[in-house]
Amino acid sequence: MLEARLQQANVLKKTVDAIKDLVQDCNFDCNDSGIALQAMDNSHVALVSMLLKAETFQPYRCDRNIALGVNLVSLTKVLRAAQPDDVLTMKAEDAPDSLNILFESSENDRITEYDLKLMDIDQEHLGIPDTEYAATISMPSAEFKRICTDLMAMSESVTIEATKDGVKFSCTGDIGNGAVTLRNHQVEEKPKENIEIELTEPVSLTFSLKYLVNFCKAQALSDSVRICLSNEVPLLVEYLVSGQSYLRFYLAPKIGDEE
Amino acid sequence: MGIKNLFSIIKDEAPGAVKESDIKNQFGCVRIPYTSHTSRSLQTKTTSSSMSIYSFLIAVRSDGQQLTNESGDTTSHLMGMFYRTLRMVDNGIKPLYVFDGKPPKLKSGELAKRFQRKAEANEGLEEAKETGTAEDVEKFSRRTVRVTREHNAECQQLLKLMGIPYIIAPTEAEAQCAVLARAGKVYAAASEDMDTLCFDSPILLRHLTFSEQRKEPIQEISVDKVLEGLGMERKQFVDLCILLGCDYVDPIPKVGPSTALKLIRDHGTLEKVVEWMKNDEKKKYVIPEDWPYEDARALFFEPDVRKADDPLCDFKWEKPDIEGLVKYLAVDKGFNEDRVRAGAARLEKGTKSGQQARLEGFFKPIPKTETEKTAHKRKLEEQNEAKKKRQKEEKKEKAKSKAKPRGTA
């Protein structure tokens, strides 16, 4: 039996909104430490990994491991009925056919209840090795989104190059080329706008902008984003939801045989 | 042709092995480009391979006239080759074409001859159906031989100009594709022919080269999952395919997909199945006189192919020779020059842009635990049971409603 109560429906709403364009159907794996989700997009280029820790919920109870096979489009339809500040409760039996979702308004006594049909999803899980990334960039999530959408206008792919001088996002398209360079930037009064770059060795990788722009939908979840890069491994884009709960995106690089 | 009814069996028994998706999701991988099968020469002709030059001809011919240029030479194969290759390149696929070589030769040689004779007879039959008179059949089959050979050469020249690599297999193109795919030189083998699975190609793509108008999803069949779903070793799987009826031997009368599956499951190997059939008192199944299943099996297990590390199997995607293409297609073959140039530009873009890697290249799937597997299997069986029950009931209903005399209802 699962029972998870979320003080702000918004957290789940935004999370699902951020991933529903990448993944259609996926399992929410619930166990006593929290609710996890791992899914690849159709073309197996991007991977979403979400973990909502038990602490994110108040209270959280899950006696047995349960996989909730959810169609995210349907879930979005249900979540649309929730106000951002509603208290959201999810309930499911041990071998559930449906997921019960309850919204309680914080302002009045309005209670909304939905039962969402579940399905069997035979899903492959990928083992993600712990990686020491060569470059880690923390920056405002809005800034990252701006860079991606701006460069998207020029080209399909962006080359991210991290050196000791800073991080350069550059692209080349039919109409010309463009680049954005960021450097370490810390202002005490405005910690939200800090840009931190940690680098152990220079990195240069090329990624599809289409996917990056898609990841940026998670901007609503968090003010800052962490981007981790190492040569010849997938890029990691991480948004912290609250506490230790996170939404991570992995993206396979483009391997250039450009000559 | 290929293997009869194999697809329906796979769909029922191992649904997890088949994935359908859009062409956009299929792209060659890191150093793992992608092989596409081929054009087939006459001897091994099957109408099933849609990428074959052959199918371009058939497709166009069924509409009436073939496409020709001013001097009357057929150009529809070049047209098809050019545009479908472009479509693949646009979607980030890097194709490698494998052409059929000679028909497979066995030690005995007998099978190969028989197989060839049969292919020729089939050919005649098909044409006879189309045109009606035996004379036409004769004429046409002769013409096809000649034309096909020229077409092969023309297509190879076109590919060369497009910068797309191709190799000529010693014998069966599918077998060669499978070897390359196994070695990781390409991501998958694309063919309509299900027997590519028997050659142990890890991934088979079907409907890849169907034209856009048909809006058919691409089927991705993973051989490992097929074997897992069927609960068989590769050897048994090949035996099953032979029993179902492959290109090399005839099917046994009265043995359909469900019987074949049952027989192999009950007896384990083809030898035992044959023995059982011969000893069966009722003589329900009659094995054709000339049924060299061992030879057929050998063809699947030891096809005459080049090893993947053979220098002849090296390939490289190159920049298209734009002027060469214009000269060949526009000047010699009467294509529209603007279109050729536009196509060449697309090709060039395709070779320039980096290859999108897949996550599987970096993260490995966590194998499922035994309990998960059995749970999944049980679920599957339940579903199949339910489906069969439903079908039975529907049949009953139908029979009932039919049994009622008319007008009384």
Automatic annotation (TrEMBL), chain A:
Domain of life, per lineage: Eukaryota
Record domain Proliferating cell nuclear antigen PCNA N-terminal: where: 1-124
One Pfam family hit: PCNA_N
Compartment(s) of residence: Nucleus
Protein family membership: Belongs to the PCNA family.
This protein's GO CC annotations: PCNA complex
InterPro entries recorded: DNA_clamp_sf (IPR046938), Pr_cel_nuc_antig (IPR000730), Pr_cel_nuc_antig_C (IPR022649), Pr_cel_nuc_antig_CS (IPR022659), Pr_cel_nuc_antig_N (IPR022648)
Gene Ontology MF annotations: DNA binding; DNA polymerase processivity factor activity
HAMAP family cross-referenced by the UniProt entry: DNApol_clamp_arch (MF_00317)
Record's protein name: DNA sliding clamp PCNA
Key words of the record: DNA replication, DNA-binding, Nucleus
Source organism (scientific name): Anthostomella pinea
Protein's job: This protein is an auxiliary protein of DNA polymerase delta and is involved in the control of eukaryotic DNA replication by increasing the polymerase's processibility during elongation of the leading strand. Involved in DNA repair. This protein is an auxiliary protein of DNA polymerase delta and is involved in the control of eukaryotic DNA replication by increasing the polymerase's processivity during elongation of the leading strand.
GO biological process, one term: mismatch repair
Classification via PROSITE patterns: PCNA_1, PCNA_2
Residue ranges of domain Proliferating cell nuclear antigen PCNA C-terminal in the record: 127-254
Principal localisation: nucleus
UniProtKB/TrEMBL annotation, chain B:
Keywords of the record: DNA damage, DNA repair, DNA replication, Endonuclease, Exonuclease, Hydrolase, Magnesium, Metal-binding, Mitochondrion, Nuclease, Nucleus, Phosphoprotein
Primary location: mitochondrion
Cellular component terms per the entry's GO annotation: mitochondrion; nucleolus; nucleoplasm
Domain of life: Eukaryota
Pfam families: XPG_I (PF00867), XPG_N (PF00752)
PROSITE patterns to which the protein is assigned, alphabetical: XPG_1, XPG_2
Compartment(s) where it occurs, according to its Swiss-Prot or TrEMBL record: Mitochondrion; Nucleus, Nucleolus; Nucleus, Nucleoplasm
Region (Disordered), start-end ranges: 346-409
Regions of compositional bias (Basic and acidic residues) in chain numbering: 367-397
Enzyme Commission (EC) number: 3.1.-.-
Gene Ontology terms: biological process: base-excision repair; DNA replication, removal of RNA primer
First-level EC class: hydrolase
Skewed-composition ranges (Basic residues): 398-409
Family stated for the protein in its record: Belongs to the XPG/RAD2 endonuclease family. FEN1 subfamily.
HAMAP family according to UniProt: Fen (MF_00614)
Function (record text): Structure-specific nuclease with 5'-flap endonuclease and 5'-3' exonuclease activities involved in DNA replication and repair. During DNA replication, cleaves the 5'-overhanging flap structure that is generated by displacement synthesis when DNA polymerase encounters the 5'-end of a downstream Okazaki fragment. It enters the flap from the 5'-end and then tracks to cleave the flap base, leaving a nick for ligation. Also involved in the long patch base excision repair (LP-BER) pathway, by cleaving within the apurinic/apyrimidinic (AP) site-terminated flap.
Protein name: Flap endonuclease 1
Source organism of the structure: Anthostomella pinea
